[in-house]
Design brief:
alpha+beta, ten-stranded mixed β-sheet, 2 domains, about 45% helix, 14 strands
Length: about 375
């Protein structure tokens, strides 16, 4: 099949600068929105999948989807501390009971936010070396002090160094800011005893078990789950957070629906531009037919022209969406109902999907005009 040179398609686009520019901008905006929403979903999923440690085991009540819904009795802790495979330091078990309590409070900018307050012990810090105090200090045991994740600074009144906030039956003083991996940076940490006393509960939400050197996680998990006394569920901390990555799925579905609807608009825009081009080039197409170019070549030329419009517009849309990576976002964790802050990620997969999206817009927008151009009888074209 004889194909027309690419410069022919480019020259045809250059003849209609206004309509081509407006159509290209429309496609670029649609692709930019596609990339932005994809980056949100990727960033939220990565926040969970890259969190947790392969050397920590999280123990919760069997059937509980998250720590905030779990209840581990105190007598179970005594049994868990002495299990083979749990790390020790100085002859003492590093098993760390924790309490996770949800707190709904107004935002400084308006609206409400659901936060998680985690009561921890000294062993919690040893088991999570990625949690670093970046300002101030840790809360003292038995005090009304708290430490906040860096994602919460300034978002709620009182959540800053030296500030205070009312939660439960007492007023807590903020003495530190920490940087933790993933969802932990969106939590408030305080002493376990104070958190339990304030919430009026006896049981823990979970128990974190660091693995001893050389210990098998599978063996430890098997021993915990085979104990029929307490009906507990154990899993690696990394697996626990990966299970919450499903919070990104609704966002992916919304991305697909919005992309489909806006993509239809972009396709009709490209279709309108190409049909207008065909209407003003009837004699030109007839001349090409008379010169011996087959119908398939003429149809391919119109599709190529639409792609020359859509693909650069798609690349422009990708560039327009890149600044979103510098923004910090937050949304509700559908498993724990607490708010999680995250950073959008424009990955290679998102960009590749966006360019495929732009390609489809070009092909579908140019296919009908290409078919019309190829099927109009030569006698009709010459009389036009």
């Amino acid at each position: 099949m004889i194909l027309l040179p690419l410069r022919y398609s480019l020259r045809s686009l250059a003849r209609r600068p206004v309509s081509v520019t407006m159509t290209a901008l429309g496609i670029a905006l649609v692709v930019a929105l596609f990339v932005a929403m994809g980056a949100l979903a990727e960033g939220l999923a990565a926040t969970f999948t890259e969190s947790g440690s392969e050397r920590n085991v999280v123990v919760t009540r069997r059937g509980a989807l998250a720590e905030s819904m779990s209840s581990v009795p105190r007598d179970a802790l005594a049994s868990l501390r002495d299990l083979d495979g749990v790390a020790q330091q100085g002859g003492n078990s590093l098993a760390s009971p924790e309490a996770v309590i949800l707190w709904v409070t107004p935002l400084s900018a308006g609206g409400e936010i659901s936060l998680a307050m985690r009561g921890v012990t000294a062993a919690s810090y040893l088991a999570r070396p990625r949690v670093r105090v970046i300002e101030g200090r840790r809360p003292m045991a038995g005090s009304d002090e708290a430490m906040i994740g860096k994602a919460l600074v300034g978002r709620v009144e009182g959540l800053l160094i030296g500030g205070s906030f009312r939660f439960g039956r007492r007023t807590w003083r903020v003495v530190g800011v920490f940087d933790g991996a993933g969802p932990l940076s969106s939590e408030i940490w305080t002493d376990l005893a104070g958190a339990l006393d304030d919430d009026g509960r006896e049981a823990f939400s979970s128990v974190l078990l660091p693995l001893a050197t050389g210990a098998s996680a599978e063996a430890l998990i098997g021993r915990i789950e085979s104990d029929r006394r307490f009906a507990l569920h154990a899993q690696l901390e990394s697996a626990y957070y990966r299970s919450q990555a499903g919070s990104a799925e609704p966002l992916r579905v919304v991305t697909g629906i919005v992309a489909f609807l806006m993509g239809l608009g972009a396709i009709f825009g490209a279709l309108n531009t190409m049909m207008a081009s065909l209407a003003g080039r009837t004699r030109e197409v007839a001349a090409l037919r008379a010169l011996g170019f087959p119908q398939a070549s003429i149809a391919a030329t119109f599709v190529t022209e639409a792609l020359c419009l859509a693909l650069p517009a798609g690349a422009l849309g990708c560039l327009m969406a890149l600044p979103i990576t510098s923004q910090s976002m937050s949304m509700a964790n559908l498993w724990t109902f607490s708010t999680v802050a995250f950073q959008p990620r424009v990955t290679a997969a998102v960009l590749a999907s966006a360019m495929v999206f732009a390609f489809l817009i070009g092909v579908l927008g140019g296919l009908w005009p290409a078919t019309r151009a190829a099927r109009v009888p030569l006698s009709v074209q010459l009389r036009a």
